[in-house]
Amino acid sequence: MLELRSHLHQTPVRKTLWWGLMNITSSDVILLAHSTFGVLGTMAAIWVFVEALNASETNAGRIRGAAWIAAVCMIATWIFGGYWYVHFYPADRAMILKGPWPFAHTLFMETKEHLFFIPLILSFYLPIAAGDKLSENANTRKMVMCVAMLIVLSGLAIEGAGAIINHGAKVALLHGIAGSGR
Amino acid sequence: MNIENGRLSRASAGFALAAAITILFSTALACVKDAYKPLNTFMNSVAWHNWITQGIVDVILFVALGMMFSKSGLAERIAPRRLISFLVTAVIVAGVGLFVWYAWF
Do A124 and B62 touch (CB under 8 A)? Predict the structure, then answer.
């Protein structure tokens, strides 16, 4: 446990930010921003799917707008997640690998970090597909609905993997505290 | 008017094919760099971290292939249903493939 604590303290950029009574580190802000934008991007894709179900001349603008929101949110997730992964995750990874749930990194984090490129590429494509006239072409509508649903499903899978990784870090800490008390 | 067998636009068809190919390429690259460490080391040296390099390569490939397919009209000639099936299959193969790869190796 002492080894883990010293590893965490060696991480150079975990600056503490005081917002009122809260003690939040820059690592926490970046981590939460990455998952929040991921959820917002997934929700925007759901919005595109629902609007495309009832595509008409009147909601064409909303479909395009929601598709762009999904793309922008996924880019923000990529930037925040990438920064956190490169700068802060190595300390958490060391902790997870020494804990009782090493598969939280070896299986779920490894899969998650590469699976993310699927919704990222699809969200880049979504505004292009949504640029066509969905109300006049059934195949264009099907394409937009399929892409939106693929973003939603892969986004949910990634959020689930994130929860497992988070729990892997938590049980590693709990295991370390319990172990140091013996 | 709702055309049941309408074609996708050049850009939509081109970038759909590009997305499917890029997703499959990204999965293959993830597996290869995991199995072949010199590639991983090389990708670390290109843009700080292999994951960042992979993301940049994926985006460049998607844009380049999309523009190429859009201009050539190649993807536009493919039936929309086939294009949709190919994209969905690519995503399923890539997703399941990544999970199986990291579960077994």
Answer: yes
The Cα angle at residue A126 between residues A124 and A128, in degrees rounded to 5: 85
Nearest residue in chain A measured CA to CA from B28: A114
Q: Please report residues of B whose CB lies closer than 8 A to that of A34.
A: none
- pLDDT digits over B58-100, tens only? 999 999 999 999 999 888 889 999 999 999 999 999 999 999 9
Q: Is residue A4 part of a domain?
A: no
Q: Model ipTM?
A: 0.94
Distance CA B46, CA A91 (A): 23
What's the pTM value of the predicted model, to 2 decimals? Answer: 0.89
Q: Smallest Cα–Cα separation from B28: which of B52, B48, B49, B57?
A: B57
Query: Which residues constitute the domain of residue A57?
Result: 17-180
Q: What CATH number does the domain containing A156 carry?
A: 1.20.120
